[in-house]
From TrEMBL:
Pfam families: MULE (PF10551). Residues 47-145 form the MULE transposase domain. InterPro entries: MULE_transposase_dom. This is Uncharacterized protein LOC107490483. It comes from the Eukaryota. It comes from Arachis duranensis.
Length: 261
């Protein structure tokens, strides 16, 4: 597709103590398509990022950035194929995402609490630090970590309800229940800044997106491609995008034809 961005990073092959000038091996790749870049301008100013492991001969991890429009249509906007989830691979993905797809000010990134993501976003030259961009945690991942420490039928629900609370009074109600049951639960939660995991302190940036579920919806769609070689994997995303935009275009034309504006 004309205008597609595909950035290939290779590494040299070293034989003994000599660099083989004639050969390199695949290291990482970032790619996106023009309709994705254009469509993101009309989406909510947030991206959900996640990684999914690849199977088959080559392994590796597929990193994704997913957006959503005001009609709740899910839109993958960028991909990267990397060796695994670490600070360097996330930095590679997020720097290219910022440069080529999401240069807008005030973007929110929703993710799990992976240390590699944290390091990449907090790098001084990343372009993802406030006030240029903001970060929020996926509450499902936070609650899963919380449940590893605190056992009980209701403790996870209390934390999730506190996170989803839209007012300070509602948040205090659930937090007081946690405190009365076990003050250590509140101490655990207070190690995170409130704007990172609660809705009532998010400044309106989440648009009610509390999890990375939209990323994992795309992961499930791509499940059949996760054992493909690199070229086939990239081609598969292109073909699925081509089909997606044709269907979306037909839907919009039908809506306009029936008088929708």
């Amino acid at each position: 597709m004309d205008g597609s961005i595909a950035l290939l990073k290779t590494s040299p092959i070293i034989v003994g103590d000599q660099v083989d000038e004639d050969r390199v091996y695949f290291h990482r790749m970032f790619w996106t398509f023009p309709p994705c870049v254009e469509a993101f301008c009309h989406c909510k100013p947030l991206v959900s990022i996640d990684g999914t492991h690849l199977y088959g001969k080559y392994g590796g991890t597929l990193l994704l950035a997913i957006a959503q429009d005001v009609n709740s249509n899910i839109l993958p906007v960028a991909f990267a194929l990397v060796e695994g989830e670490n600070a360097e691979s996330w930095s590679y993905f997020l720097s290219n995402l910022r440069r080529h797809v999401t240069p807008q000010e005030g973007i929110l990134v929703i993710s799990d609490r992976h240390n590699g993501i944290k390091a990449a976003l907090e790098s001084p030259d990343s372009g993802w630090r406030p006030p240029h961009a903001y970060r929020a945690f996926c509450i499902r991942h936070v609650a899963a970590n919380f449940a590893l420490t605190f056992k009980g039928q209701d403790v996870r629900r209390w934390l999730v309800n506190a996170a989803y609370a839209k007012t300070e009074a509602e948040f205090d109600y659930w937090f007081d229940i946690m405190r009365s049951e076990n003050p250590a639960m509140c101490d655990w939660a207070n190690r995170m800044d409130y704007e990172m995991w609660t809705q009532h302190k998010d400044g309106g940036r989440r648009y009610s997106h509390m999890t990375t579920n939209i990323s994992e919806c795309v992961n499930s769609v791509l499940k059949g491609t996760r054992n493909l070689p690199v070229t086939s994997l990239v081609k598969s995303t292109y073909l699925r995008f081509a089909e997606l935009f044709v269907v979306r275009g037909q839907t919009v034309e039908a809506q306009l034809g029936s008088g929708h504006r």
